[in-house]
Amino acid sequence: MRAHYDFSKMQGQKNPYVKLLKQAVTIRLDRDTVEYFRALAVKTGLPYQSLINLYLRDCAMRRKELSLRWAMAGRRTSV
Predict the structure, then answer these.
(1) Domain ranges of the chain
(2) Is there a contact between 34 and 48 (Cβ–Cβ < 8 Å)?
(3) Which ranges in 1-79 belong to alpha helices (H)?
């Protein structure tokens, strides 16, 4: 192995796959949700955007489905 390598003439190349790794999106979140992940980021040392991504990825991998029931306006319920 050489003791000295000359990298001055080397030309760098951009990673052609970098755009396939992540997709930028705009999403509107409640302030308390963002504050929760920011506080968690302080504890873990990870950026809060990465924590949100990890949580959503976990939900997607486990195929979690949200269970919602919307209240109907004007509907009376019997007791």
Answers:
(1) 23-61
(2) yes
(3) 18-21, 31-44, 48-61
Q: Quote the pLDDT of residue 76.
A: 60
CA within 13 Å, CB half, 42: 5
**Is 23-61 CATH 1.10.3470?**
no
State how far the Cα of 4 lies from the Cα of 2, in Å rounded to an integer.
5
22, amino acid identity: K
3-class state of residue 67 by DSSP: coil
Tens digit of pLDDT for each residue in 7-60? 888 888 888 888 788 888 999 999 999 999 999 999 999 999 999 999 999 999
